[in-house]
Amino acid sequence: MTIRALVERPDEERSEVRLALGAEDWRQLDKVGQALVARYRGPLALVDRNGRAEPANEQGVELADALNGILRPQFITLLARASEAGVSHTDFLRLGEVRDDLAIDLLVVPLAESGADADGYLVLGRDARLNRNFREALIESRKRYIDMVRCSADFAWETDTNGVFAFVTMSGGLGYTPDRLVGRAARSLLDRRRPPPEPFPFESNAPTEEAEIWLRDSAGEPVCLLVSSVPVTGEGGIWIGTRGVCRDVTEARRLDEALARARAREKLLANIVTTIRDEVEPERLLQTAARSLVDGLDASACWIYRADPKGGLRLAAEYGDWPNPPALLEVNTVIDRMVNIGPGPEIDELNTLAAPTRYRNERNGAICIGRAGRRRWQDDDRNLLAGIANQLGIVFQQIDTQESLLALSRTDGLTGLLNRRAFVDQLRGRLAQAAQFGLIGALFCVDLDNFKPINDHFGHRRGDTALRTLSRILRESTGEMDLIGRLGGDEFVIWFDAVDAEEAAAKAAALVEASQVLSQYSEDLEKALAASIGVALFQPDRPEEIEELIARADRAMYEAKRLGKNRFSLAPAPDGADKPAMGNA
Q1: Which of 81, 195, 317, 533 has the fewest CB atoms nearer than 10 Å to its CB?
Q2: What are phi and psi of 161, to 5 degrees?
Q3: Could you count the other beta carbons within 10 Å of the beta carbon of residue 297?
Q4: Structural domains of the chain sorted by starting position, each given as residue range(s) with its CATH number in brackets
Q5: How far apart are CA 554 and CA 279, in angstroms?
Q6: Residue 483 near residue 427, CB atoms below 8 Å
């Protein structure tokens, strides 16, 4: 039976194809050949010794056309190899460049008796497009997977059940090359200052997703990684390791921490400023600021200094568990170093931090905080302290202004002594203290003699000069704890603590003597400028109202004037039992 007859058998239900052997002497196909043509699902072709291909089945039509056409150069080479070897040969031939073009595996079988030259060839083809597409899909999928891993992770890895790296991508990780990571336990890279999550993703037999872990890189710097992993199982579902990817989020975490610190610093600064603002008394205000700084900065102690009138520093407030404040020289050293160089040196085993306070670029104070132990100050601490120092610089100016206004409201503008209201307020406190502790004291009422003629004859300027001279004499004749005030006009008052009658008389006599210099302002006037003094003793066993004490001293002063002026008079006791004592210069 010929090949044409075989192919056209009705029971095969094939459509008519072009079958022409081209040679009368081709052998009839045997049973094996018949079965091959009938049951082979791929393309078949017969090729004569000249390399001319004819289809042997319906699928072979396309193959024969390609072998006689565009694939002929490749096919002739394949035939030559098969003919030379005398055995079958295979090759892969491809027609076109797109995915759906012909791609076929060929098996060329020489048709000849044993030891004879081939009379022709049987060509069996197998459509390789499916395998090719599958292989290319795998390659593309692998490339896509690699690209996605590279985009989503800094490196991928595999570990064994002990968390030891068995594989790391070619780029390495954490500054290490793959060969330096493979064989190393992931736990050996942990940043010990930050506890790792449990279960540890590099050792976990359960999936983990974006676990945050802090490791140390090859330079020893902390690195934050987001780690996702899955377990790897072997035969029988036995866990044999873990594989996963890491993504470096260190910069993002540092930015988050910086923002969190900035928000905390702003909140702390706002709390301190609010606390300070709510205080009215300057001393309590600064004490509150010192306490807030110790609490807010986790310090051991805080000292706040204000500038004195001479430009130096004086301690204004302190808070904390430290026995002695640092010496002012050391504080200035710390501040100068911080302003000009950087963090200051230690003071008395304290890790100190200091900042100057300013108002309109003028230094008006300083803050010094100390922390016992080895924990150092950070940049956030310095920034916060600088922010507090800026606020305190404004506060200091407000306190200075407040104190200046208070001084003006309580001070006589001409002499600088306490005015009547301020003197009475302070005297009231002294009398209450004297009554409580059983202390005696003396109130002097000093009035100029013959003062009106000075103003009338020489003018008020000379009169003012005389009043300032008397105020100077009073200051020179009293101590720091004594009170001096000007009640108005040419009337002055003095309060002496712990002075009895004898001491009061001696002081009054000395004042009368010292006031003789006032005569220079009266020059050739008939009556010289002088001073008369009335003295009222305060006795704690005979308490009296402040107005009555002043009135007694005032009556004693007028008594001295009535008796000739330029002398002093001691007022009788409140019950009138004692008679006044007289004295003059």
Answers
A1: 195
A2: -70, -15
A3: 20
A4: 3-128 (3.30.450.20), 153-248 (3.30.450.20), 256-403 (3.30.450.40), 420-584 (3.30.70.270)
A5: 41
A6: yes
Which two tokens mark 159?
A: 């570990």
Task: Return the bridge partners of 120, or none.
Answer: 48, 111
Distances in Å between the alpha carbon of 363 and those of 176, 272, 307, 347? 52, 21, 8, 22
How many whole angstroms separate alpha carbon 354 and alpha carbon 369?
A: 6
Question: Using CA atoms, how far apart are residues 312 and 161, in angstroms rounded to an integer?
Answer: 69
Task: Give CA separation, 88 vs 60, 124, 148, 282, 403, in Å.
Answer: 19, 10, 45, 109, 115
Cβ contacts of residue 105 below 8 Å, gap of 6+? Answer: 90, 91, 92, 125, 126, 128
Q: How far is CA 228 from CA 171, 190, 442, 481, in A?
A: 18, 17, 88, 78
Contacts of 376 (CB under 8 A, 6+ apart): 351
Judge whether 563 and 584 are in contact, CB under 8 Å: no
> Which residues of the chain fall below pLDDT 50?
1-29, 98-99, 114-115, 341-346, 577-582, 585
Distance between CA 156 and CA 140 in Å, rounded?
19
Backbone angles phi, psi at 412, to 5 degrees: -70, 125
Q: d(Cα 380, Cα 388) in Å, to the nearest integer?
A: 12
Model pLDDT for residues 215-247, shown as the tens digit of each residue = 999 999 999 999 999 999 988 889 999 999 998
Output the pLDDT for position 320.
Answer: 86
Cα dihedral 369, 371, 372, 377 sign? negative
Indicate the pTM of the whole model.
0.47
